[in-house]
Amino acid sequence: MNVTWGTLVRLTLLVIAVVVVQIAVVAQIVVFDATADLLPLVALSIGLLAGPVAGATVGFLLGLVADMALLQTLGVSSLLLIGVGYLAGRFREMRDATHKLVPPIGGFLATLGFDAGFALVQFLLGVDSSVSPLVIREALVSAVINGLLAIPVFAAVRAALRSDLIDDLRPRRRPVTRTRVLSQS
Amino acid sequence: MYKKSVRRRRAVLALLVSLSIALLTVYFGESASGGLHAVQRGFLEVMAPLQEGASRALKPVSDLVGWTGDVIDAKSENEDLKQQNEELRAQLAAAQTAERDARQLRGLVGFNESARFPDGHDPVPARVIGRSPTVWYSAITIDKGSDQGVRDDQPVVSGAGLVGRVSDVAPDAARVTLITDHTSGVSAQIVPDGPNGLVKATVGNPNDLILDFVQKGRAVRRGATVVTSGWRSSRLESLFPRGIPVGRVSRVDSDERELYQRVHLKPFADLRELDVVEVLTRNTGAVQNAQASP
Fold first, then answer.
1. Contact B205 A31 (CB under 8 A)
2. CA atoms within 13 Å, Cβ hemisphere of B206
3. CA B283 to CA B288: how far, in whole Å?
4. Given CB 3.0 to 4.6 Å as the disulfide criterion, which of A141, B96, B123, B255 pairs with A34?
5. Would you call A56 an interface residue with chain B, using a CB distance cutoff of 8 Å?
């Protein structure tokens, strides 16, 4: 990723816009008793597009702004979104991240991991009530919704940061090679 | 070159994780008046206009999605609603009779008919401008704050019943912890003459609250109404005034090994579809009376 002042401004605006839209709009739309969560999707997209350092940094910022705006325990979302962004970036480095199924499957897994991590941290911090098994259903539904949403979110993030990405992820094609016919002799 | 890049990557990761854990530890350890909490309230003050603007601007989008879901749900709910309608009609007739009786009784003991419910409170209407996306923090953000008289721990209601209490206040916005949050506890009683208990949440299921600490052997009728009990002692007073509807009894769990029975409630307020709520602020007259009383 080509980091300039413009990149930092665009990333900051992206983080704030995503958190505002998530809190004010997306979180209020209930589908099958669950809601979508853009935060892990954006951290995932940045990781896939710009690598682990950018993914982890944006994940941290997303979590920090969300926890600040929602008056939640600071650091919880940051910690988990750092993991999402970093792992997505490592995946980009180690595997072919250009496949079309990477964003939806990644979105599903990232959301599931984020929700499971959130639950774990909450249990570590202490939960004062009983917990319904419906939490699991909600996490699964939310992960499926996020898996579907990951495709447009990934495309939107790529469009927003296109000018900053050195090697934009596009499907890799096999190089065309000319082969000689050997069996003519 | 590669090693340098790996070292840099690991250093950034370690720094960010350390920072997050440090924030978590300091935040969790400090009181509500601590530095990080104050920074959060300041940040909410900055973000509230943005949230309000986005909420208003994108309301048609969320309404459209909600409408689509409602149409699908409406078919399955139709039969249930018909049955509920029958029950409500019967309840309305009973309530009107009771109301007439109550009016006569109030006249006898000199109660003022125009006294608002709950006594000593003024309603401050507020719009919901934000919602926590996770089930672990069941909270909403409203567009009214300390400038409009909203204070910590004031009760929040919707047209249907109790919603929660104010848990953090900025000048023009406030956070409301819903009764479905795992930290919430509301003293309540089953009416008309049922037992008292503490309403707790069931994390992940906003349609199921639990009235805990109800002694075994006390009869609890399915369908009975639960309201806030609004207790008051010489020094302390419940955050919630008496008589705010909370929910309806849906089932009762009674385990022989347990000392108490667990009464499950379905809240009256639809806590996932809140657009407008009311904060019940104490009016000054009531505060003075409360301070003057022993």
1. no
2. 22
3. 9
4. A141
5. yes
CA B240 – CA A89 distance, rounded (Å): 49
Residue B151 backbone zone (phi > 0: left; psi -120 to 50: alpha; other: beta): beta
Q: Which domains can be identified in chain B, with CATH numbers?
A: 121-285 (2.40.10.340)
Contact A42, A63 (CB under 8 A): no
B41–A71 CB contact, under 8 Å = yes
pLDDT tens figures, A5-23: 888 888 899 999 999 999 8
CB A90 within 8 A of CB A53: no
Q: Cα torsion at A22, A28, A30, A35 (round to 10°)?
A: 30
ipTM: 0.78
User: Best residue in B16, B45, B178, B258 to probe A by mutation, most A CBs within 10 Å?
Assistant: B16
Distances, alpha carbon B216 to alpha carbons B190, B200, B212, B219, in Å: 14, 18, 11, 8
Cis peptide before A103 (omega within 30 of 0): no
pLDDT tier, B272 (very low <50, low <70, confident <90, very high otherwise): confident
Preceding omega of B49 cis (within 30 degrees of 0) = no
Dihedral in degrees, nearest 10, Cα atoms A23, A28, A34, A40: -20
Give Cα B38 to chain centroid, integer Å.
23
Over residues B128-178, the pLDDT tens digits come to 888 887 777 889 999 999 999 999 999 998 877 889 999 999 988 999 999
Q: How far apart are the first and last CA of chain A?
A: 52
A127 touches chain B (CB under 8 A): yes
